[in-house]
Design brief:
With 144 residues, the protein is α+β, with helices and mostly antiparallel strands. The chain is built from four helices and four strands. 37% of the residues lie in helices and 18% in strands.
């Protein structure tokens, strides 16, 4: 019997870079973004909020990051059968609003990125562009 397990998680340096890149991409799209990065245990690692962003987007971005970190799925691609059950069953901790994507380098899942502030489609586009600029995988996360 094993006495412990090892968990791989995104570093603060990479998480902070993801936030900076997403903020820059959001600005290029004219969106006042709020960006969160969570590790696979749904712990917030890095966060940024553009001046003038809506206050509720802070919580939305955190939930998107936590959902993608935990489920390893893009929030907007979670199966319809779970679209109501997931948020209700977790007391609102998780969401199916698009704009959350898993962060995967090679075959290694390290966390989730949540972008809020625009429409769900804009948030998802910013998140995917951020993954590409970081050199993270986007395969399977782009369809919608």
């Amino acid at each position: 019997m094993s006495t412990h397990r090892q968990i791989v998680a995104i570093t603060y340096e990479t998480a902070a870079r993801a936030v900076a890149v997403a903020m820059e991409v959001g600005e290029q799209h004219g969106v006042k973004t709020v960006v969160s990065v969570a590790d696979p245990s749904m712990t917030l690692i890095a966060y940024g909020m553009a001046d003038g962003a809506t206050p509720h987007s802070a919580e939305t971005s955190r939930r998107k990051a936590a959902t993608s970190a935990s489920t390893r799925r893009r929030t907007g691609l979670i199966p319809e059968a779970l679209s109501t059950a997931l948020p209700l069953g977790t007391g609102g901790a998780l969401t199916t609003i698009d704009g959350g994507v898993p962060i995967v380098f090679g075959d290694t899942h390290v966390g989730g990125l949540g972008v809020a502030g625009g429409s769900p489609a804009q948030d998802a586009e910013i998140a995917l562009k951020t993954l590409k600029r970081l050199g993270a995988n986007t395969v399977g996360f782009e369809q919608q």
